[in-house]
From TrEMBL:
Mg(2+) 1 binds at residues 74, 91, 94, 218. GO terms for biological process: inositol metabolic process; phosphatidylinositol phosphate biosynthetic process; signal transduction. It catalyses: a myo-inositol phosphate + H2O = myo-inositol + phosphate. It comes from Planctopirus ephydatiae. This is Inositol-1-monophosphatase. GO terms for molecular function: inositol monophosphate 1-phosphatase activity; metal ion binding.
Length: 268
């Protein structure tokens, strides 16, 4: 039997804490950016340190307020101290390659599960100070203003983004899916931050995003944002989305979802 969801007041407290952690984690990333040198090796080392520093700060902030909560993070953070139904799913730096090169498309992503259900999502872009937030059943917001997915229903009118595996080849199915959308959608891009791709979809800036190589912390916050903005989320074949499986197809409308799935079927 499912547990009763937290009260509205508790949800607001959770969102407030997560937002504070995301903002401070983002500020930590920006402070480390100023230390980068032109040496690739030292850059790589600093990125690792920045990543860990951001996650450590986020973890400390949330643990201080919610000491019994569980955590799942990208940088070897997995704690289950109690049987609490709460689990924070944290990516302290989504878009690492972009961050290394000073390309301003990276973010802090913090999602919260309750009894396996996503209930809070926060994505913070420290370069633009864009804060995307969502509470289950209360809509999606950008800097406090409600946002929603577009109503685009034709694939030829859709701006799409794909996420490809870091190490891949032209024969990889992910690459074939990417190429299959060129000439069919209005445009198809690869940006390097799954969290921001999902946030942008929720905010009506793009119409579709897909990947077959993501981790829970890449998607947790963004999936809730898309759902709360009226979008659709599933696996690439249309089956129910599973946060702990690596694939996702997120679209602004059900019509786009069906069209993209059909194109993928024809591709394989």
């Amino acid at each position: 039997m499912s547990l009763e969801l937290p009260s509205a007041q508790m949800l607001e407290e959770l969102l407030f804490a997560g937002t504070k952690a995301a903002r401070l984690g983002g500020a930590m990333l920006e402070s480390w950016r100023s230390r980068f040198t032109v040496t690739e090796k030292s850059r790589a080392n600093l990125v690792t340190e920045a990543d860990f520093a951001s996650q450590k700060l986020i973890h400390e902030i949330l643990l201080n307020q919610f000491p019994d909560h569980n955590f799942l993070g990208e940088e070897d953070l997995a704690t289950r101290p109690t049987s609490s139904p709460f689990q924070w799913v944290v990516d302290p730096l989504d878009g690492t390659s972009n961050y290394v090169h000073g390309f301003p498309y990276y973010a802090v992503s913090i999602g919260l599960e309750f009894d396996g259900e996503l209930i809070v999502g926060i994505i913070y872009d420290p370069t633009r100070h864009d804060l995307f937030t969502a509470i289950k059943g209360q809509g999606a917001f950008l800097n406090g203003q409600r946002v929603s997915c577009t109503d685009v229903i034709r694939i030829e009118d859709a701006m799409c983004i794909a996420s490809l595996p870091t190490a891949t080849s032209t024969s990889d199915p992910a690459v074939k899916r990417f190429l299959s959308m060129i000439g069919r959608s209005q445009t198809v891009q690869r940006t390097g931050s799954a969290a921001l791709n999902l946030a942008y979809l929720a905010a009506g800036r793009i119409e579709a995003f897909w990947s077959s190589s993501l981790k829970p912390w890449d998607m947790a916050a963004g999936v809730l944002l898309v759902r709360e903005a009226g979008g659709k989320v599933c696996k690439l074949n249309g089956q129910s989305f599973d946060l702990y499986q690596p694939e996702i197809l997120a679209t602004a409308t059900e019509s786009l979802q069906a069209q993209i799935q059909q194109i993928f079927v024809e591709t394989t």
